[in-house]
Amino acid sequence: MLEYSAPERPQIFLADFRADPQRYPLSTPSGKIELFSATVAGFGYRECPGHPWWDEQEAARQRQEAARWPLHLLSSQPRARLHSQYDHGSVSRATKIQGREPLWMHPSDAQARDIREGSVVKVYNDRGAILAGVHLSEQILPGVVQMSTGAWYDPLDPNEKGTLDKHGNPNVLTEDRGSSRLGQGCSAQSCWVEIAPWREALPPITAFDPPRFIEV
Q: pTM (2 decimals)?
């Protein structure tokens, strides 16, 4: 067991710099808060001009996707596990709907698609398709749906490219590309999708089954 004593004063971000910027400069080239980075601009990347900007080229591409897929899927961090860790545990499984990862949507979007609370739906776009269980809530905006990341990938046919994920991992639907050539950060937090009721028999969840070669 480790014990930590409480700090004598609150930890306030940039408090020393604000009190005495000459004595406590920042680690930027100027030692100050910078709204423009000559270093970043010097790389010559179109999408990284050295300051925040509106990328009309990217916005136009997003508008084209939205015209085909009318629902904006946001994939946030889960409350019942750490990323994908312990998805097989009882706490995470208790949040599932008919064994599938929950998806939150506005009642008006559900009504337009003949979708009901607690039903299973197919969430899809031109990158793939997954199954999810539905929660209806007026706390989410019309035109927006939300799923958590981290459900263990469970392909219907592992040998088929683009096969349905039975369990509900939104990574099947999001783009696999870096946020920019400079940062290469994760850009998988949102995408455009359509949703339809799943009217076929539900395939069994096998994501938590151990591989055959280690069964004894």
A: 0.84
